């Protein structure tokens, strides 16, 4: 297992990131039909994605359906194998980084304690055949972190922390509402005191009123336990409420990355503007007509230049010729559109 | 947690029941399956204690009663429940022998009667039989009279052996072939299907093609070919084992398919991914998270595989390629029916078929009930 330091991936020494993703790619092969299934192309679900997750930060990841948000976070956590790229992670908080991309399955196991995931669907992410107590205790059992009384105590603690009663331990998940089940999933993710938690649409499946409770819970836990989140979401209102910075993804790439207020007040990339414009606005007087959204990008068949060019009102020939990279476009503001905001 | 099948419980809401309880609840609604389950349990108890449940030994010949038809029952206050006596008479015209009523041979019947001594499982000596002729109720019963006072519930065969006793004792083999064979196909099916589903890719494709090839062979000729390869000088035990292996070699494919399909679909379930991201090992994911999700499906598939095995043993033995006399199994008994004239004259020789149909139906009903109950979340 190689250990890296901040200079190996040019991270900011002043504010060393917890997680530094560099040129992450995840391609799914497209195979021909028939007996011999040749690889005839790739779905570039994630293509050269780079970003930093800072300590105690909530980084939002937004974008339309199918743009590769889930694939990005699942690949970082190695639920999927990397096609290429790196994800440097500092599990101990002492500036010694490991690269998720190159670890073997065995080397990954201890890191699971520090990096966890909360799933979107509170119904399919809990094993229906295990009790709540069993589900929440499982991480501790797997890693041998606690036994007997200590185990029970830890499980009780975390259940109380996420707002569930310890008596629920003997019940099965299907006895709970969506919001309660999501709390169980949160308890399972946090019981090992991780540093880094991915929440992949953790509230999208919940009722609006329950969403608010769960989001506030996540925010409280972040402060209490010193967590950093990557928060994948559809709902821009939620993102604005909880995130410190937001990354906008389009067709497998990050097209804009900026602090939340900056992004919402001064969006640079035409796609971000489209996204913000087409988000439902609660105030009826301020309703703007969403611009023609065009068809959703096909990750298996992208144009050569800027992937957004077919839908972009500002597209030029230069856009179609060469793919623009993510570049600084203001303080702490990155954008992948050279045409806008200079 | 104990859960009594028919015990009344305080009303529980679905929410507080676990998977097993829900399954049982649903299974209990399937009355036919429950009944079949109990009947099968009865059959297997009978098979395990067969010398006790059989009134006669399996080789106990009574030359006075060759091809004796099933005896009728009678009841009066003097004799209690008794079997109407028969004796052989020769028709003066055709010279054929037939059986005529012989009230002097009426045999009083009873439960837990004293009969021929035997050793249960070769160790426990006993002379009690579950039911049969009760010598203690026959006035001036002398040693040797057992051969005169008889009860052939399902008639007797060409040696004067009691067919019912042979059915009961043959069930030990005929019914256990199914279970042993199913155990073997369970091993084959879960291991091969598990590998196929968990590995995926080329391994999966190769295994699936092999399964398709095996499935496309006609079953009977395949059995015959495999059974014919068993050396004829093998003893009963070796033959028995060879037959079960033969049967299971051809029947694991169904289970392998179920296991593979389930693992393929469950592998990407969020809770399996979650377990992986928690750091769970492959065996833990497989046995703790994936297999329990379809243990019920495995049981159902296995239950529905048993009757095929039982039928297979019977067919092979009937055709002379399976077990051979002196081993007693239902198939071996049916060898007597090879001769059509014998079947026409002595139709009770077909009695093992009734038992076979009975056992197979029970397994099918049970399997159906289990299948409906297997997925309690499917529909409440
Ligand atoms: N296992 C896979 N095999 C092939 N293609 C895949 C696979 N998983 C995802 N993809 C493709 O990768 C792209 C990105 O999918 P992903 O699930 O990451 O999107 P997403 O941004 O999370 O969308 P959503 O908002 O709907 O959850 C999609 O085009 C999808 O079809
Ligand atoms: S690079 Fe060109 S096509 Fe792409 S978003 Fe900017 S203006 Fe539009
Ligand atoms: Mg997703």
Walk me through the topology.
The complex is a heterodimer of chains A (about 350) and B (about 375).
Chain A: E1 19-31, E2 39-53, E3 58-62, H1 69-76, E4 84-89, E5 98-99, H2 105-111, E6 115-118, H3 132-142, H4 148-161, H5 178-190, E7 196-200, H6 208-225, E8 228-232, H7 236-242, E9 245-250, E10 253-259, H8 260-265, H9 270-278, H10 317-321, E11 327-328, E12 334-335
Parallel strand pairs in A: 3-8, 3-9, 6-7, 7-8
Antiparallel strand pairs in A: 1-2, 1-4, 4-5, 9-10, 10-12, 11-12
Helix pairs in contact in A: 3-4, 3-5, 4-5, 5-6
Chain B: H1 19-29, H2 31-48, H3 50-53, E1 73-76, E2 80-83, E3 86-90, E4 97-101, E5 107-120, E6 124-133, H4 163-199, H5 201-216, H6 219-228, H7 236-267, H8 270-278, H9 282-318, H10 330-334, H11 340-345, H12 351-374
Antiparallel strand pairs in B: 1-2, 2-5, 3-4, 5-6
Helix pairs in contact in B: 1-12, 2-4, 2-12, 4-5, 4-7, 4-9, 4-12, 6-7, 7-9, 8-9, 9-12
The structure holds adenosine-5'-triphosphate, iron/sulfur cluster (SF4) and magnesium ion (MG).
């Amino acid at each position: 297992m190689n250990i890296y330091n901040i200079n190996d991936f040019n991270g900011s020494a002043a504010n060393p990131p917890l997680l530094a993703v560099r040129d992450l790619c995840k391609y799914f092969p497209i195979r021909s039909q028939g007996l011999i299934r040749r690889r005839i192309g790739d779905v570039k679900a994630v293509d050269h994605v780079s970003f930093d997750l800072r300590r105690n930060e909530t980084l939002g990841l937004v974008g339309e359906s199918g743009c590769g948000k889930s694939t990005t976070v699942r690949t970082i956590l190695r639920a999927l194998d990397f096609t290429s790229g790196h994800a440097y992670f500092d599990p101990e908080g002492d500036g010694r980084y490991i690269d998720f991309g190159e670890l073997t399955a065995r080397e990954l196991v201890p890191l699971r304690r520090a990096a966890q995931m909360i799933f979107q669907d509170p119904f399919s992410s809990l094993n229906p055949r295990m009790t709540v107590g069993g589900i929440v205790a499982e991480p501790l059992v797997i890693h041998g972190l606690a036994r007997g009384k200590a185990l029970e105590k830890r499980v009780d603690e975390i259940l109380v922390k996420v707002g569930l009663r310890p008596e629920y331990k003997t019940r099965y998940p299907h006895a709970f509402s969506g919001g309660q089940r999501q709390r169980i999933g949160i308890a399972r993710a946090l019981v090992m005191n991780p540093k880094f938690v991915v929440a992949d649409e953790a509230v999208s499946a919940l009722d609006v009123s329950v969403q608010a409770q769960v989001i506030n819970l996540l925010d409280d836990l972040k402060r209490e336990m010193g967590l950093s989140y990557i928060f994948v979401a559809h709902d821009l209102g939620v993102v604005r409420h909880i995130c410190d910075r937001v990354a906008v993804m389009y067709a497998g790439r990050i097209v804009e990355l900026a602090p939340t207020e900056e992004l919402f007040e001064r969006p640079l990339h035409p796609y971000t503007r489209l996204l913000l414009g087409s988000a439902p606005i609660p105030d009826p007087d301020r309703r703007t007509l969403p611009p023609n959204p065009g068809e959703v990008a096909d990750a298996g068949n992208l144009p050569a230049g800027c992937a957004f060019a077919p839908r972009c009102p500002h597209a030029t020939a230069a856009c179609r010729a060469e793919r623009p990279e993510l570049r600084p476009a203001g303080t702490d503001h990155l954008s992948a559109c050279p045409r806008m905001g200079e | 947690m104990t859960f009594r099948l028919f015990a009344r419980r305080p009303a529980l809401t679905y929410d507080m029941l676990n998977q097993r309880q829900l399954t049982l609840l649903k299974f209990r609604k399937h009355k036919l399956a429950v009944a079949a389950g109990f009947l099968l349990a009865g059959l297997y108890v009978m098979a395990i204690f067969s010398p006790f449940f059989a009134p006669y030994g399996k080789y106990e010949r009574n030359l006075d009663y060759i091809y004796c038809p099933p005896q009728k029952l009678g009841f009066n206050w003097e004799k209690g429940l008794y079997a109407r006596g028969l004796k052989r008479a020769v028709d003066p015209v055709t010279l054929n022998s037939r059986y005529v009523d012989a009230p002097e041979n009426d045999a009083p019947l009873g439960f837990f009667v004293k009969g021929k001594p035997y050793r249960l499982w070769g160790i426990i000596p006993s002379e009690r039989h579950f039911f049969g002729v009760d010598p203690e109720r026959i006035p001036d019963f002398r040693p040797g009279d057992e051969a005169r006072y008889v009860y052939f519930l399902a008639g007797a065969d060409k040696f004067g052996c009691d067919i019912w006793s042979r059915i009961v004792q043959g069930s030990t083999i005929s019914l256990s072939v199914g279970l042993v064979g199913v155990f073997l196909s369970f091993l084959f099916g879960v291991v091969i299907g598990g590998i196929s589903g968990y590995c995926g890719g080329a391994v999966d494709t190769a295994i699936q093609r092999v399964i398709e090839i095996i499935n496309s062979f006609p079953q009977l000729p395949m059995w015959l070919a495999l059974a014919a390869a068993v050396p004829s000088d093998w003893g009963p035990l070796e033959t028995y084992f060879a037959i079960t292996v033969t049967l299971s070699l051809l029947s694991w494919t169904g289970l392998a398919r179920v296991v593979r399909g389930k693992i393929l679909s469950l592998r990407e379930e969020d809770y399996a991914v979650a377990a992986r991201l928690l750091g769970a090992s492959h065996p833990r994911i497989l046995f703790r998270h994936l297999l329990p999700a379809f243990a019920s499906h495995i049981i159902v598939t296995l239950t529905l595989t048993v009757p095929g095995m039982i039928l297979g043993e019977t067919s092979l033995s009937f055709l002379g390629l399976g077990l051979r006399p002196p081993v007693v199994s239902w198939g071996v008994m049916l060898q007597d029916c090879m001769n059509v004239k014998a079947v026409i004259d002595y139709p009770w020789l077909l009695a093992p078929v009734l038992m076979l149909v009975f056992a197979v139906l029970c397994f099918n009903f049970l399997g159906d009930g289990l299948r409906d109950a297997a997925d309690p979340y499917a529909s409440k």
